[in-house]
Amino acid sequence: MPEKSWIERLSDRGDSWFRASKLEKEGRFEEASRYYVEEAEKQKGKNLGMAAVSYLAAAKCLVKAGRKDEAVKLFRLAASHYEKYAEEVLAVSPNSALWGYQMASKSYMWAEDYKKADELLEKAKSLMDKLELKPVKVEISGDVPLFKTYKSRRGKEDSK
Amino acid sequence: MIIMMLTEGTYPYVKGGVSTWTHNLISSLDEFKFVVVAVVANPYVDLLYEPPRNVVRLIMVPLWGTELLEEYVDTSLLRLVKPKPSRKTIREEFLPAFSTFLSEVKSGGKNVEKLGESLSEMHHFFKRYNYKTVFKSEEVWEAFSRQLVEDPLYASLKTSSLIRFGRLIQHLFRVLAYDFPEVDLCHSSVASFCGIPAIVLKMERGVPYLLTEHGVYFRERILDLVKESGTLAERFFWLNLYRAVVRLNYHYADKILPVCGFNVRWEVEFGIAKEKIEIIYNGVDVERFRPRPELEEEKPLIVVMGRVNKLKDMVNVIEAMEYVVGEIPDARCEIIGPIEDKAYHEVCLKRLGELGLEGKVVFKGPSESPEFDYNRARVVAQPSISEGFPFTVVEAMACGKPVVATDVGGVREALEGCGIIVPARDPKRLGEALIQVLIDEKLRRELGEKARRRVVELFSYQRFLTEYRRVYLEAVSKRKLEA
Fold first, then answer.
1. Which residue among B19, B131, B316, B376 is the one 20 to 30 A from B478 at the CA level?
2. Helix, strand or coil, per DSSP, at residue B192
3. Pair (B300, B386) in one structural domain
């Protein structure tokens, strides 16, 4: 049997991320979201960071498809995977853990779990202090957040 | 997730530190798929690294040695018959972008976005038309020569230089003729011509671009130019061309990942905000590279690990050996690594003969088991005039060996109190430091132990991989959120 070309290898059903990206580019967001979730499920046992990104991409696709309520569930899954990822890499690479906590905080925020978002943001800040890093601005894509502006319960504006 | 890894003169066709870095990164991050775009001098090169299974495509971009460029562009037969554009098409559709490109190159890329746009437009043009025909056209030659001759800075250039530069530009930018595949992320291992596909993809499709800087490309080109003969105008031309290409890479990269703090000074000098820069040190396998005291040779042996080329300055260690042998007659030095520059190797052999050091300094060629070679040594020397964050120094440290190295690139950061630093191009100081370490057993032991501890703590392979995995995910997450 002739060896598959590189594009065939990527397009075959095994590569969910590739399929999802392709569908997303074509504007078929609901299908894309399904494949991103498939990729996340495959990755979650071995690569928490990759699983988190895949859930996030899936959630974003659902938002684009106008299914915000369902997206919340996926944002929550993304958040918990970013958090687990941060815990996993903390001892080896604190910088990576910091990013994980920040992403977890953002994702919890989009999942409308502001308490968890706040908690994770505090973890990130505390780690930042230990690493003697300057505070990193929490940025949300576009001019407006996906759902609504999040304000920390301590009264500080943590996002714009 | 597909990552386009861009290399120039290294992986997978040339052995060396950057190639090893690339190979290790790709093979270890096997959850990602890679398309490797390798810019090489000519197509007649052998694969020296077997691409791992997660390399889904290897695209070779030969700058010279092929008349028919299209045969490397794509496997599709249609690609072989790219039409020749008419003179009118060249004048109307190509020359405006080419003139902007030249004007920016001449000024060292002062308006980097204009330069980027002109490259993107040229890439679009070459997707439709035959690259070679365009560059061989009278219109392009006229535009090129006029732009240079009319500029007071370059007015003194001879016609022969103009012809040479025109030809070189045609070759150096060949990567523009390629059609780049759809990827999630681009990662270049040098701020050079191979970064152009990443820049174009970033501009056209918003693909994130990460740039790792090993040695500082611009600094190394300056070092090359110092040694080259040529008029002032010629040197200015080259300097500005390199400056423009480096600026482009720095500007369009989402993140610059130098291998050491030394590089940051150069990057900041180019106006790059520090927030965009993150140092990721090279990591070594601390199990493979571990102390094996039983292997140390009885007679004092100095090991130098590195490719034989001008930047590694092997003449420095040869001349230093004159001092060492004067004090310690049974000392020997082994230079282990491939001969990359044959002419320079001849220079080394000549100097060796002049100093009567035959048998005392030996070129051993490349090694398959450097971990054993370091361990055979009493001290490891690194005589270079330019380095990034050298694997050789960190590997020797991991083996618990004292290191005597020149103060270049990230060497000081790597050693920091665990070895002896000497100025570059100073054989006397290098020789004296080697003697000091060779005769002082207590010092050797102390330096070796500290070095091993430092590597385990800071430069482990696990940390290196975790940080690259994260910057990949970070860039893709950001893109997904912005989409």
1. B19
2. coil
3. yes
- The domain containing residue B301 runs over which residues? 293-459
Phi, psi of B258, deg, nearest 5: -70, 155
pLDDT at B407: 95
**Residues B179, B259 within the same domain:** yes
Domains of chain A: which residue ranges?
Answer: 12-131
How does pLDDT run across B88-131, given as a tens digit for each residue?
999 999 999 999 999 999 999 999 999 999 999 999 999 899 88
Please give the structure tokens belonging to residue B48: 């020296």
Task: Choose, out of B456, B459, B477, the residue to mutate when testing the contact with A (most A CBs < 10 Å).
Answer: B477
Higher-confidence residue of A48 and B270: namely A48
Decide if B319 contacts B351 (C-beta within 8 A).
yes
Q: How far is A83 from chain B (nearest CA, A)?
A: 13
For B2, nearest residue in chain A (alpha carbons): A18
**Do residue B58 and residue B8 come from a single domain?**
yes
Q: How far apart are CA B258 and CA B361, in angstroms?
A: 34
What CATH number does the domain located at A12-131 have?
Answer: 1.25.40
CB B32 within 8 A of CB B3: yes
Predicted structure pTM score: 0.82
Query: B475: closest CA among B184, B141, B70?
Result: B184
- What would the mean pLDDT of A59-70 be, rounded to a whole number? 94
Say whether the ipTM exceeds 0.90.
Answer: no
